[in-house]
Amino acid sequence: MKQDLIQRLTTYVKIDTQSDPRESSTPSTAKQWDLLNLLAEELKEIGMDEVSIDENGYLMATLPSNTEKPIPTIGFLAHVDTATDFTGTNVQPQIVEKYEGTDLLLNEKLNIVLSLREFPELSNYIGHTLITTDGTTLLGADNKAGISEIMTAMHYLLQHPEIKHGKIRVAFTPDEEIGRGPHKFDVEAFGAKYAYTVDGGPLGELQFESFNAAGARVVINGTNVHPGTAKNKMVNSIKIAMELNRMLPLDEAPEFTAGYEGFFHLMNLDGSVEKTVMDYIIRDHDRVKFDERKKLLTRVVNEVNAKHGSGTVTLEIEDQYYNMGEKIEPVRHIVDIAQKAMNRLDIPAIIEPIRGGTDGSQLSYMGLPTPNIFTGGENFHGKYEYISVDNMEKATHTIIEIVKLFESEGAE
Ligand SMILES: [Zn+2]
Predict the structure, then answer these.
(1) Distance from Cα 181 to the centre of ligand 1, integer Å
(2) How far is CA 399 from the centre of its chain?
């Protein structure tokens, strides 16, 4: 199984699938089709049924039930695109056999080192087979490890018909990294009652709570006048932007918060005297606090307008996704089954709220409750990304155990 996982992951990561938030098409980049088409062929080759790919790049397939027993259809999902934060062009994966617990030289020429001092988690992987980058790209184990694990689990189940199971659906989807993963996902066509995204990080991660999320755009209109004759005329929109930002709780920012603490994050500021645009994201696990944050920003904008004249500042807030915990809590047994699957494999389940969202955050609100399980990867979205093949194998077995448990537990 390890060789299959290595073969799959190293093949998939070499295909550039970076998404692009500036493009409105789905998939946002045509190159995502390269991997989608390859995966469609592979799903057919391993013997999956009902392999379909729609015009928006949503690839689905079925592992038919092999029992008469009534069992709910469950799904497994992973995304084909890679993060926009770092290049995914010309990925050259490197395989480290029997990792010895030392610093890893990723790139001799550029002297890029994956060091234990910076990344102490490396010591968890002594004896493992690791896959790293060559220091010039991200790896793309997020989420191609998830794809490899789902594919390998399906292949395993097809080769082991003695393992009884209900109908299983799999989907590989575009554009997760730009927050548009499930936008055009056809939940009805997928036809699963529950699903799991295989898109988490280190061994044992099991997540069913995410942030509530909104994006806010603040536009400040100033007046530019020659600085020599500007007295009582110039309105400097950059300075109003600075004033506005100071009116928000400054310690409620990503760099000062953890666990269940929410925040305002000024992601981007683009300003001149005449006009300044500020892009914030607002995050909170608690729906009430989330709503309060949006109200607070609105109040701050109103105050600035009261001081500098109405129309100085405009505010647009758009909700992005909600805490999937609200939708998963009523069907908590699907989390329990995943936890039990891990227990059976001696994997300590780590149940923590996600400080972000996953495709499951949106899917759960589209009627498909979808917790997230680990892939085994570390340091996603950058050049220090790596993954343990040993833990990929455990993720694959976790998928298989979940499938078995739905059969044996008679879960509804
Ligand atoms: Zn991901």
Answers:
(1) 10
(2) 18
